[in-house]
Q: What sequence folds into this?
């Protein structure tokens, strides 16, 4: 049986139960906007495979209507990249493999300006014990193996963000930890299966507990999405 705090934290992965009532920065001068400075050598298409963190949660982006215009996918699309967001709430490497999410990748990738495939999964595999660490590794490799190689394609394996799972109370520690799942992503990328994006330094403990960055210590708020989008854009630039 999970401690009460853990149950409260992981519940928001399926349905966000915390609404941040403060006012976060917005508008051209706010932190929730992506810089207007143009970036060079962006791919024509970005395909995102993630969970509710990448899909966006209405309560965590501090906006009056659920149009998700402040989420990472929309912020990146404003830079002229065609974004195909295959993320959904509750997604995991277990479900990505069983439901053959790579079919959506193979259907939508390609194009003269190149394709970036951004994979950020693992939180739900860990939180809901959907995959052991070894199963997570096996399913990750299976998933990658089903993605059809195309010209000018880059696949990015992204570690799960630091979150309340990492900065919880000592009595809430469990084994394996979310860091063990990050190690799998690093190992897979290190073996040459994809390009590693290590997000460990993107959000620290203060950010995780900041209502504008992570209102529920897991999902991104407006400022969190803005920071994530900038970091993502830095990573996917290159020669395609």
A:
């Amino acid at each position: 049986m999970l401690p009460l705090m853990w149950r409260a934290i992981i519940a928001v992965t399926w349905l966000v139960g915390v609404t941040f009532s403060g006012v976060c920065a917005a508008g051209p001068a706010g932190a929730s906007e992506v810089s207007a400075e143009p970036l060079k050598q962006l791919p024509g298409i970005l395909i995102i495979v993630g969970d509710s963190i990448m899909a966006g949660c209405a309560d965590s982006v501090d906006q009056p209507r659920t149009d998700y215009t402040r989420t990472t996918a929309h912020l990146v699309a404003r830079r002229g990249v065609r974004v195909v967001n295959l993320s959904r709430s509750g997604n995991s490497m277990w479900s990505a493999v069983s439901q053959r999410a790579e079919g959506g990748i193979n259907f939508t990738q390609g194009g003269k300006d190149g394709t970036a495939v951004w994979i950020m999964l693992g939180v739900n595999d860990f939180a809901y014990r959907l995959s052991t660490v070894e199963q997570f590794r096996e399913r990750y490799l299976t998933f990658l193996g089903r993605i059809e190689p195309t010209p000018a394609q880059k696949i990015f394996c992204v570690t799960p963000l630091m979150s309340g799972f990492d900065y919880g109370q000592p009595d809430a520690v469990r084994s394996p930890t979310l860091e063990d799942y990050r190690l799998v992503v690093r190992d897979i990328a290190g073996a040459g299966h994809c390009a590693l994006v290590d997000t460990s330094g993107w959000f620290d403990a203060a950010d995780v507990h900041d209502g504008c960055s992570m209102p529920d210590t897991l999902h991104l708020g407006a400022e969190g999405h803005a920071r994530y989008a900038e970091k993502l854009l830095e990573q996917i630039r290159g020669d395609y």
